[in-house]
């Protein structure tokens, strides 16, 4: 099976609320988010991933999966959270410059041992290429063994492959980071 070509078990096929996502997170071992993130400079624990859904009148409504929400759950089954969203590993609050309070650290606090995030805004197509390469390499190595070196090597290799095509544009490919709890 190649990622992106077959139906992946457990993929949520419709837009969910924060409550529904939190419930699913507690049951899954890999979570991949391709959303936008939001930073709250005054209250960093209110920073998070922006989820969009439709209300009963089919109007777009935004909901935020916050760092605070994540701090209240236990991701005992989680092995990897891949946050393919802008600036998920960046703390923009000047008053907390010496703290590591960002969306990636929220998953770490919740108990996820491996997180992939971005240090600055991302280009959608590059995010897709990096993720495709990353998951393909994980499958090739035997996805059941999500250990530190395998995850780090898969991300590094994927970034290197994209860098080879766009080496003059490091802002497009150099923002991806792997955190280990």
Key words describing this protein structure:
Rossmann fold; 4-stranded mixed sheet; 3-stranded antiparallel sheet; 5 helices; about 180 residues
Q: How would you sum up this structure, described in words?
A:
This is CHAT domain-containing protein. Pfam families: CHAT (PF12770). InterPro entries: CHAT_dom. Strand 5, helix 3 and strand 6 form a beta-alpha-beta unit. Helix 4 packs across helix 5. With 181 residues, the chain is of the alpha/beta class. 31% of the residues lie in helices and 19% in strands. The longest helix has 19 residues. The chain has a single domain, classed as 3-Layer(aba) Sandwich (Rossmann fold). It contains 5 helices and 7 strands. A 4-stranded mixed beta sheet has the order 1-5-6-7, with helices on both faces.
How are the SSEs placed, and which strands pair?
Blueprint: H1 18-25, E1 30-33, E2 36-38, E3 48-54, E4 60-66, H2 67-71, E5 80-83, H3 103-109, E6 114-118, H4 124-141, H5 148-166, E7 176-180
Parallel strand pairs: 1-5, 5-6
Antiparallel strand pairs: 2-3, 3-4, 6-7
Radius of gyration: 16 Å
What is the element string, with H for helices and E for strands? HEEEEHEHEHHE
Question: With helices defined by DSSP (H or I, 4 residues minimum), what is the helix count?
Answer: 5
Strand content: 15-25%
Low-confidence stretches: none
Helix percentage range: 25-40%
Average pLDDT confidence is 86
Question: CA-to-CA gap between the ends?
Answer: 29 Å
What is the CATH topology classification name? Rossmann fold
Count of domain modules: 1
Number of strand segments: 7
Sheet with most strands: strand arrangement: 1-5-6-7
Derived from helix and strand composition plus strand pairing, the structural class reads: alpha/beta
InterPro entries: CHAT_dom
Domain CHAT: 20-180
Protein name: CHAT domain-containing protein
Pfam families: CHAT (PF12770)
């Amino acid at each position: 099976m190649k990622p992106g070509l077959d139906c992946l078990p457990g993929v949520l096929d419709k837009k969910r609320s924060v409550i529904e996502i939190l419930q699913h997170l507690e049951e899954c071992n890999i979570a991949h988010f391709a959303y936008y993130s939001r930073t709250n400079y005054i209250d960093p624990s209110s920073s998070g991933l922006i989820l969009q859904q439709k209300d009963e009148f089919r109007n777009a409504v935004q909901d935020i999966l916050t760092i605070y929400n994540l701090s209240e759950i236990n991701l005992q089954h989680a092995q990897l959270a891949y946050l393919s969203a802008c600036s998920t590993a960046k703390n923009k609050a000047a008053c907390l410059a010496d703290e590591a309070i960002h969306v990636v650290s929220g998953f770490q606090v919740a108990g996820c041992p491996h997180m992939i995030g971005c240090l600055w805004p991302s280009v959608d197509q590059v995010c897709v290429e990096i993720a495709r390469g990353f998951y393909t390499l994980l499958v090739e190595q035997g996805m059941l063994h999500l250990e530190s070196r395998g995850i780090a090597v898969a991300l590094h290799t994927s970034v290197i492959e994209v860098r080879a095509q766009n080496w003059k544009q490091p802002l497009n490919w150099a923002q991806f980071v792997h955190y280990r709890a």
